[in-house]
Amino acid sequence: MDYIIYVLFFVIGGGIGYWLRKQKISDKIKLAQEEAEKLLSETKNKQNEVKIEAQEKALKIIEEAKAEEKKRRDEINELQKRLEQRENSFSQKLLELQDKQQGLYEKINKVEEVKTEIQEIKKQQFEKLEKVAQMNKEEAREILLKNIEEQNKEDLVSRMKKLEQGSLEVLENKAKNMMAYTMQRLVSNYVTEICTTVVELPSDEMKGRIIGREGRNIKTIEQLTGTEIIVDDTPNVITVSGFSPIRRHIAKRTLDKLILDGRIHPTKIEDAIAEAKKELALDIRKAGEDALYELGIAGLDEKLVQIIGRLKYRTSYGQNALRHSLEVAHLSGLLAEELGVDVAIAKKGGLLHDIGKAVDHEVQGTHPEIGRDIAKKFGLPQEIIDPIETHHDDKPRGIISVIVKVADAISSARPGARQDTYERYLQRLKELEDVANSFEGVERTYAIQAGREVRVFVKPDEIDDLKAHNMARDIAKKIEQDLKYPGEIRVNVIREMRVEEYAR
Fold first, then answer.
1. pLDDT tens digit string along 455-482?
2. What's the predicted TM-score (pTM) here?
3. pLDDT of 105-115, one tens digit each?
4. Are 384 and 346 within 8 A, CB to CB?
5. E strand residue ranges, 283-378
6. By 3-state DSSP, what share of the chain in percent is helix, strand and coil, each rounded to 5?
7. 3-state secondary structure string, 391-446?
8. Of 49, 111, 257, 490, which is most buried with the most CB atoms under 10 A?
9. CA 326, CA 320: separation in Å to the nearest integer?
């Protein structure tokens, strides 16, 4: 029974608890709904406020855009009005220019008509003058020019002389000062080269040993070296003669070795010649290297250096070719320094200007042509090839060629630099006089100052002052074309009139 009561109380309590809980939940739901409705209402109010505010801002922006658009339209209208005004002004000016152009065309036509009338009148006057003078326009002009020339010949000659002397004096003074300053900065010694070499002997007995049985030793030496061995009565001396300095030095070295060894026979001679050639080759290379070191030049091919060294054993008019090339290189460098030209290029051009002479006995052609081919073979630049090829031409190519030509002339023309035989000296003077005597109107000619000056006396009744002036120039040009000479030659044409009368 109690058990049932407990169950009933439990059921009734659970139902009452469930109802109370449900009632509480219902109240919370109502409160949540009320809060949600309240939030929704507030949100709607805020949304309406935001919409109203956005509408107000949009209206404001639209009004500002309309105002800006109106302002731009006003500006565009103002610009359009200005453009229209300018266009109207331009059109008006264009019309005025067209009117002026039309007026100018009319004036030009009038001027052409007047010009045509004047030419016609001038033509008629010329025809009348030709009829009166009985000569045409060309004949009258020729007579007029001839008369003017005759009347003003002396004035023209004096004016030409004055202008030429003035310009020549200035240029000559500058050139002389430059060359004198350059020559003062370089001092060289000259040793005249000859075509014989002397070999000293310990005794005259050695002459017989050099000659050998039936001359076999001396014949072997002469045959293998290409020289001539002269054995005369001069005590303790024999002479090696030959045009090639290289061959002479090979022969001399060979004889020195044979004399030192004491054994002289054909086999030993061949060995001595082979050793002498090796030593000479080393000496040639050393000479080339020393020349480059003296000038401060580097970067040349070894074979080219050896060719430069061969110039040590080459002479020209008795002047050693290597010493001459070194002097020309130094002078070229000094002149280039004075003129503001590349000194290194000038030195290379001066050193290599006679490089063709090193092999001209073996290769056919003139030494400028041979030197040009050598320079091209070793890939030298054109500014070095030009002085090698054109240093003997009347018009060398480029300033470096002119500098090398001047330096070459200075080196060759110095006193004692070159040896000249008496016969060659007389022949050169005769050739100089013959060139001057080949001109018409020449009475007599004298070559003086060792061929540095030629004085030409002309016939005064055939040659006037103007012709004498032109003759001096023509003689100088012909000498440059026909003759070869170191330095320069002065041409002095003399025209004098002598009138003699006796008072009795």
1. 999 988 888 888 888 899 999 989 888 8
2. 0.48
3. 888 888 888 88
4. no
5. 315-316, 319-320
6. 70, 5, 20
7. CCCCCCCHHHHHHHHHHHHHHHHCCCCCCCCHHHHHHHHHHHHHHHHCCCCEEEEE
8. 257
9. 10
